[in-house]
Amino acid sequence: MRISTLSWAGACSMLALAASVLAAQPSSRSSGSPDSIPRELVEALLRQSQFGGLRPEFTIGRIPASLAPFLYVPSNARVLGGVSASSGTTVAFVVPGMSIEEVRATYTREQPKLGWTPPPTIEDMRGWGFMPSGGAYGGASGLEYCHVGQSLQITPMPTPGGMQILATVTNFGGRCTTRSAFVRLPTSTTTLLPALENPLGSTMNGRACFGASTISTGMTGTSERLETTLSPGQLLEQFAKELGDSGWRQGAAANGARRMWTRPDSIGVRELTLTAIPIAGTGCQDVTMNVRRVPKPQ
């Protein structure tokens, strides 16, 4: 599976179906229990996902043996189970009392101990504009790691029962085996635009946000479509912290969805404008960054 081709919600739904087959033995199938879902139904649904026509192997209440030595699972986690095939493995577990930032810090610390390394970053390829959360690229959200061509995606999702974590290992494809090609703008131009990392848990230009609007990148500006639970004001507050850390000074806000910053440079002042416009009926926003230079008075 290419990680970016399967939504988190879709993967979790399939895992929930997979977990339910624990009771789907011949006796339970005939009982008509509402908690029993036939294994054949789960396999049929999975054939439309990353597993193709192959027969997947389910594990209930534990991490598959092939992945267990290479995945950090907190000691207080409740493991839901997983599903494996030749193309990869997906598992789900719930950790009580853990925040998204704690998930990020924990896996940043623990996964390298198990032989995983960060993938090539989009910063290496572009170096400016809005960056996917956690160093991920495209539709992926969360934390991503590589090992001998395999990729591991860690995706957290808060639930009433605790932080639900989905871990997906892809055996081929993705950034761990191929590096996307980006055309760099001239250095004199890219220095106009700072790099801003989107919030952890957000999705950048994902399928849920596709629409008629054009996502564009120009010489002094760029825009992306972001799926996030944050309001426009909360999103711009996050970016404000990043800009403040890199020397930008915030000016007066025109409104909650549009804000401005300034920063001196060698020829005068750079003025940066950020906007975040929600798309009605979705959890998506169009975020736009524009920068212009104001020369020093002669």
* End-to-end distance: 58 Å
Largest sheet: spatial strand order: 1-2-3-7-6-5
SSE run: HHHEEEHHEEEEHEEEHEEEE
Low-confidence stretches: 1-13, 16-32, 135-141, 178-187
Mean pLDDT rating: 74
What is the count of β-strands?
A: 14
Total domain count: 2
Helical stretch count? 7
Helix content: 10-25%
Q: How would a crystallographer describe the biggest sheet?
A: 6 strands, antiparallel
Shape: elongated
Radius of gyration: 22 Å
Derived structural class = alpha+beta
Strand content bin: 25-35%
How would you characterize this protein structure?
The protein is an alpha+beta fold and 298 residues long. Helix content is 20%, strand content 31%. It has seven helices and 14 strands.
What is this structure's SSE topology?
Blueprint: H1 8-20, H2 26-31, H3 39-46, E1 57-60, E2 78-85, E3 88-95, H4 100-110, H5 122-125, E4 129-131, E5 143-147, E6 150-159, E7 162-170, H6 187-190, E8 195-197, E9 203-204, E10 221-227, H7 232-245, E11 249-250, E12 258-265, E13 268-278, E14 284-295
Parallel strand pairs: 4-8
Antiparallel strand pairs: 1-2, 2-3, 3-7, 5-6, 6-7, 9-10, 10-14, 11-12, 12-13, 13-14
